[in-house]
Write a structure and sequence with these properties.
The protein has 408 residues and is an alpha+beta fold. It is built from 16 helices and 16 strands. The strands form 3 sheets. Strands 1-5-6-11-10-9-7-8 form an 8-stranded mixed sheet. The structure holds histidyl-adenosine monophosphate.
C-alpha cells in the first residue's frame, strides 16, 4: 500500500478529470459505494474458487460478529447498490461508473499493489453487443486523450451456462492427458477450475496448453453470434483487436465477452484494464434477471505507462501570486491581501515564518508562483508597488489600495 504524495496526487487528479470527462461523454453516472461490504457478496459474485476470494481478500469479523471485506473490485458493490436501491426503476438501461481504492492481498510487485485504484463502468439492462464494445471504447478513449500509445485489445468469449459445461468436460479430459507437463498450481486446477489453466502465466503451462480446445471454438449459437457481432462492430469502428482464446480472467462471473487492454510498457502484469459481460450476476445477487457488462482499469498501471511514455500529466499549479512583506506592517498587509485574493478565488500565498526577503523570493520560486509582490514601508507609504512576473522578470506598477479587488 502506498502513499500518493502531493506532486503525484496532482497528476492523479489530472488523470481522474479525464476519466470523469470521458464517462460523461459516454453518458455514465457516478456511483460511490462503501469501502467495506459483507464478505458473502464477493464470495457469491467473484467466485469461491478464484484466487481473489480464496487467497487475497482482506476479510475480518467486525464487532457485531459480521464477516466483512475491503472491496477487492467494484462490480459486485455497484450491482449490490443497483439492486438494493432499485436503480432499475429509473430506466431500462442503467449506466454507472466509479473510481476508488480496491484491496487485494497479492504478492506485491511492479504494477501490483495491495491497495490499488480502479476506474470502471457497468451497464445494466441490455444484451446488446454494442455495449460490450462501448466498454472497450471508454478506456481506449481515456488512454488516447491522455496521449498513451500502443495499447493492445484482446478479446475472447467465455460462453454461457449452455455451452460451458460440455466444453469444461472436454477441456478437463484433455488437460488430464497432459497433466505431467503442467505446473503444480495448474495440476491442482484441472478438476476445480480448468479454465484458469489456460491463462496461466507459467511458460511451461503456456507451451503445454497451446493445442488445447478453446471455448471460442465450442460456443452455442447465441454466444457465437454475439461474439461475431462484437468483432464486426470493432472492425467497422476500425479498432484493432486480437482474439485470444486463452483469455479467461480471474473472476468467475463472466459470460460471453471477456476482454483486456494491455500495454507493452508494463512488465508481466501487463493488463491496463479488463472487463466483460456478466448476464447472470444480477440475478445471482438477488436482483431480477438483468444482463450486464463492464470494465475496470488500474490507475497505478496507467500512471506507470504515462511515466514510461514520458507523458507529462500536468503537475500541481503553484500560487498565482506570492506576497512578500518586509516588516511587521507590510506582513500584515500581505496576509490580509492574500485573504482578500483567496476570497475572490485566486490561489495566493504569503510567508508565515518571518523569513528574509531573499528567502521569501526563493520560496516563491520553489513553489512556482507566477507573480510576486514585495511590500515594505516605502510601498505602504506611497500606496504603490511593483508586481513582478517570475517567468519574464517584467515589472508592472500597481496600486496597493485596489490590488486585491482588481488582480486577475
Ligand atoms: P480485474 O481484471 O481484476 O477486473 O481488474 C481490472 C484492472 O485493475 C486490472 O487490469 C489492473 O489494471 C487493475 N488491478 C487489478 N489488481 C491490481 C493490483 N493488485 N494492483 C494494481 N492494479 C490492479 C475487475 O476488477 C473487474 N471488476 C472488471 C469488470 C468490471 N468486469 C466487469 N465489470
Amino acid at each position: 500500500m502506498r502513499d500518493i504524495l502531493p506532486d503525484e496526487a496532482a497528476r492523479w487528479r489530472a488523470v481522474e478529470n479525464v476519466v470523469h470527462q470521458v464517462m460523461q461523454i459516454f453518458n455514465y453516472r457516478e456511483i460511490r459505494t462503501p469501502v467495506l461490504e459483507q464478505t458473502e457478496l464477493f464470495a457469491r459474485s467473484i467466485g469461491e474458487l478464484t484466487d481473489i476470494v480464496s487467497k487475497e481478500m482482506y476479510t475480518f469479523v467486525d464487532r457485531s460478529g459480521d464477516s466483512v471485506t475491503l472491496k477487492p473490485e467494484g462490480t459486485a458493490s455497484a450491482l449490490r447498490a443497483y439492486i438494493q436501491n432499485n436503480l432499475a426503476e429509473q430506466g431500462l438501461l442503467t449506466k454507472l461508473y466509479y473510481l476508488g481504492p480496491m484491496f487485494r492481498q497479492e504478492r506485491p510487485q511492479a504494477g501490483r499493489l495491495r491497495q490499488f485504484h480502479q476506474f470502471g463502468a457497468e451497464a445494466l439492462g441490455a444484451m446488446a453487443p454494442e455495449l460490450d464494445v462501448e466498454m472497450m471504447l471508454i478506456p481506449l478513449m481515456i488512454y488516447r486523450n491522455l496521449g498513451v500509445v500502443q495499447t493492445g485489445l484482446l478479446i475472447n468469449s467465455v460462453g454461457c451456462p449452455r455451452c460451458r459445461p460440455p466444453y469444461r468436460e472436454l477441456l478437463r479430459s484433455e488437460l488430464r492427458k497432459i497433466r505431467a507437463q503442467l505446473s503444480v498450481d495448474s495440476q491442482s486446477r484441472i478438476e476445480q477450475n480448468p479454465f484458469r489453466v489456460l491463462d496461466s502465466k507459467d511458460e511451461s503451462d503456456r507451451k503445454a496448453t497451446r493445442s488445447m480446445p478453446l471455448m471460442k471454438d465450442h460456443l452455442c449459437a447465441e454466444c457465437s453470434a454475439h461474439f461475431v457481432r462484437v468483432q464486426e462492430l470493432l472492425k467497422n469502428l476500425k479498432i484493432s483487436f486480437e482474439i485470444d482464446g486463452h483469455l479467461v480472467r480471474g473472476l468467475d462471473y463472466y459470460t460471453k465477452t471477456a476482454f483486456e487492454i494491455t500495454s507493452r510498457d508494463l512488465g508481466s502484469q501487463n493488463a491496463l484494464a479488463g472487463g466483460g459481460r456478466y448476464d447472470l450476476l444480477v440475478e445471482e445477487l438477488g436482483g431480477k434477471p438483468t444482463p450486464g457488462v463492464g470494465f475496470a482499469a488500474g490507475m497505478e498501471r496507467l500512471m506507470m505507462v504515462l511515466e514510461k511514455q514520458n507523458i507529462a500529466a500536468p503537475g500541481a499549479a503553484g500560487p498565482k501570486v506570492f506576497l512578500i512583506g518586509i516588516d511587521r506592517r507590510s506582513r500584515t498587509w500581505a496576509f490580509e491581501t492574500v485573504c482578500a485574493l483567496r476570497a475572490r478565488g485566486i490561489p495566493s500565498e504569503t510567508d508565515y515564518l518571518e523569513r528574509s526577503v531573499k528567502a521569501q523570493l526563493r520560496e516563491a520560486d520553489r513553489q512556482h508562483a507566477e507573480f510576486v509582490l514585495v511590500i515594505g514601508e516605502e510601498e505602504l507609504t506611497t500606496g504603490t508597488g511593483k508586481l513582478k512576473e517570475m517567468k519574464t522578470g517584467k515589472e508592472q506598477a500597481i496600486s496597493l489600495g485596489t490590488f486585491a479587488k482588481t488582480f486577475s
